[in-house]
Amino acid sequence: MASPKTIGRLQAQIQRRVAYCLQFEIADPRASFVTVTKVELSNDLARAKVSYSVLGSEGDRSKVQHMLTGASGFIRRQLGRVLETRNIPALTWEYDPSAEDAANLSRIIQEARKRDEEIRGVNPTSGSEGALDPDADPEGDQGPAGDPGLDASDAAEDAPGSV
Length: 163
What we know:
Distance between the termini: 72 Å
């Protein structure tokens, strides 16, 4: 059983090496849009679950899954060259939908902002036409201290050093 520090170090090494193999050493066009997001290594260092994300459709994800399964032996052999362990962990591949979820969330936020701007009457291209300044006083009746409703005698009473 390895210490958590050792497991963390090995997880980082595995993630870097797998990403390097996918980017530079595997001559498969399906590996071009794969991102290794996380590696979880078992306590006995026998198994590593590699999470990945893919830009593309469901069909692209399926193709990449088959490619990764087929390339596991090669990637494991490449890991053996850089890991300083007696045994090389068996690799399992798991799709990570977090990148897709983040893109969907970003799209939803942009749509909500656009709707808000349309409701306020702001021109989305210029960004300033018809916009309201939340700090501006609509009636312009701020007192001397910058607070509405204060006159000069109230401001003098609130001044430091006054009794």
